[in-house]
Amino acid sequence: MIRFLAWRWTSGAIGYAATMPLLRWTWQGLSEDAFAGSLPEFRPADTETVIDMMQGRYLLASKLVDTEGTSPFSIDVDHEDWLQALHGFAWLRHFREVRDEGSKRFARTLVLDWIGREGQFDPDSWAPGLTAQRVLNWLRHYPLLTEGATPEQASSIARVLGTQVQSLKVRARFVTVPHERALVAAALVGAALCDDEGRGNVEKYATRLRQVLEKQVDADGLHRSRSARIQLNLLVEAATIRLALIRDHADLAHELGTIVDAMHGALDTLTLGSGEPAYFNGTGQIAHDLLVAVQAQSPERRRDGGSRLLSGYGRLVCGPATLIADAGLVPDLAFSGDATSSAMAFEFSHGTELIVGNCGPAPAELPDSKPLFRGGTAHTGPTINARSADELTERGPLNGYLRSLAPAIEASLDAEEQSLVLHTAGYEAEFGVTLERRMTLLNDGRTLVGQDKALVAGEEVSGVVTLRFHLAPGAEIWHGTSENIARVYLSSGTTWTFLWEGAEMREEESVRQSAHFGLHRTRQIVLEAPVEPGHEIAWIFTLEEG
Known about the structure:
The chain is an alpha+beta fold.
């Protein structure tokens, strides 16, 4: 921990010094005609988005802002994700296929307006990761921005683009957020590929990108943050760079592609039958068309649809059913800034329909709720006395970082029996027990059987264990009074029977993050019992036929 804090403080201090006015003169932009060509763009475009933006409506990061005809860069919007999306310029892709000169001019005008307002360094809009994404998006659509522009406009765009690239070169080694460091490395490769004068640096920067990814991606191909959201964000840029390298630098493309293909495979493993990556470690709803477009970029991709263990996750597949569970591996400190305490939590889909899941990340408009959404109660897993299995630091130099309270216990998988066993020792010190969860898929995936048990690990055992099952949006629960049985009615019309024993049951409200609505209101089933040595809570979800 001390080493991490020392490294972060030193890197942060050097990075801050590099942005001081006295040194910013070194960010000298490239000449106005230095950039040629563009990077490939494979993300889907939506012409309706172009129409909305031209009418002053900006739907970004699940928030719609109506600027009433004024520049989106001129208004104050208290929504961090929306501002990140606006200043990142990924929305330029929607203009790539427009034929109308007015639409092209509108996109160029927005870029020029940003240059007029933000062209000088600002610590927020010029943050390394955001600057890297903006550079990559401008390079993807450089012809759109410059063809038809006046010489003065083209010169201004080239100059500010070059200045941003130079700023990344100066700051690259001092970026403290790991995935932002990878974005910066990708941007520098992209800039070298699009700069006639800098093509001699392609190998240097491509090698650096590969080295950065090798440090951040584990042996299973998953980013060490264990976040499908960060995995996808990095894949967008890494896959773009690989495509750009193929024509003139096939050897570099092959070296990078080995890592990128492994990342594609890991993201597949964390994706449910519903098409959504599981909501763990800061991951919320991801646009399905974007996910499909990104995953289609792996020429060697062969989706492994079977059961497996991967990077602290367990995946069960039986017939049309898919279950993804977290064994509770907390990322190393540098990667845990968005990590969730989700030991033994799971998400379960049948066919293309979600049955049970997690709440996902807190919406940007509820920043004070972020700790709640990162805790155990926001996940379909166990807690004791409403405590999480890990510690989320909320003050001091480690504010916002998740820390493990006990070493992670590796999950075990029986692929033949379609059974997954998880443990957590996160409650051992305070409550004297480790928890065990065994889950099995039966009947071609139409039945999910779960068993939760408290195992004695200390001299004194105490507390109340709570199991939460956050249901899919739109689900309704019917619960009789005389039996340990409930029925879950999904919005599709299908019905699942829920049986349990060894605990008291109640129903509560819940939510699930949505890219379109912020939060979907839904319901959750809650089972609760005193912590007792060897006590088992059993539960079953079964699909009702007909």
